Amino acid sequence: MNLPAWEKTMKNHLRLLDIDDLILMRIILEGGRFVDVANKLALTPPAISHRIKKISEIFEGNLFNVKKNRRRDLSAKGLDIFKKCNEALKVLEAV
Prior knowledge:
two-stranded antiparallel sheet; globular; mainly alpha
């Protein structure tokens, strides 16, 4: 099966993530501020920001649009990536 180039690239990038990254992204996709995500994962907000930065570097782009009130919304690219990560987690959970 021939996949589009962007999908091949995304699959290659997904392989660079660990399960903790996938879980982090699922919780972010469900909504909430980084501080809320940090509390759910028993991490500090700076630790969450550091992991998000790492994930953004892997995928070579901004995953979030930062609003004036410092609220973060997923960018279109971020939403695509987070959905793929959620699908990967579902596969892992089924095993």
